[in-house]
From TrEMBL:
Descriptive protein name: Olfactory receptor
PANTHER family, A to Z: OLFACTORY RECEPTOR
Key words, A-Z: Cell membrane, G-protein coupled receptor, Membrane, Olfaction, Receptor, Sensory transduction, Transducer, Transmembrane, Transmembrane helix
Residue span(s) of domain G-protein coupled receptors family 1 profile: 47-296
Amino acid sequence: MNLSCSLWQDNSPSVKHFAFAKFSEVPEQCSLLFTLILLMFSASLTGNALIALAIRTNPALHTPMYFFLANLSLLEIGYTCSVIPKMLQSLVSEARGISREGCATQMFFFTFFGISECCLLAAMAFDRYVAICSPLHYARRMSRGVCAQLAVVSWGVGCMVGLGQTSYIFSLNFCGPCEIDHFFCDLPPILALACGDTSHNEAAVFVAAILCISSPFFLIVASYGRVLAAILIMPSPEGRQKALSTCSSHLLVVTLFYGSGSVTYLRPKASHSPGIDKLLALFYTVLTSTLNPIIYSLRNKEVKAALQRTLGKKKVLTRG
């Protein structure tokens, strides 16, 4: 155990502070990575905030699909803000430490926003299923109340899983070393630092991943399976094209989010590699949240038009 770790423990039987591992021993590499992550973080915050604002201020977008998209943008903002600021600090500062309480807080919010997003993506897929497969009943089945309930359930499940997983993991003792071989307080690298047998905790993390990642994913696959079947029997090519265009953005986001998340949390423990885990972490915490606003704005004419109107209003206000 290094000197800083032993000082942080204050003769306690359990580590009270952790330290994130250095990204690189080469300062130039850290500076380059800092710049890239900061640019993507800024783009993610700006893009998601603009989409949420555009949907909020444009009555034409007050529909179930865009209600869920606004929620998704808010989740993405929380998701990145729970991880990236501390990551950026660790890149350019020697102050790479984080208290046990701070680490638990970061883990809770990261898990909370991540699981909520898994559930919300399933709700969005269900919305597309009802819109395409049962258009005559869409207004009744996807009423404002139903949409609000689906959103509340998504956020609620994320909160419960975040609280449960965080409290379960941080009930363990951490005897050292205290260096986290990762960019943030993710579940697997924190479990690796715990004392004694952690097999039950690892099983709990795996079961939670199965329930909260795989279950919504299967709902998404089932919904889009029915959607695809309905699209294939549409007599009009224009109708098929319109139906596909409304689903393509969501499918691309689902592929990016679930692809990286599944590889991270559903792989066997023996196949985990710190280097690969860090690369995947950068992908699903930074890159995915940066790409989502671009995907939705470029592939959706209504969102693009709403963003242009919102930005136009801002320019007028600025000039005034």
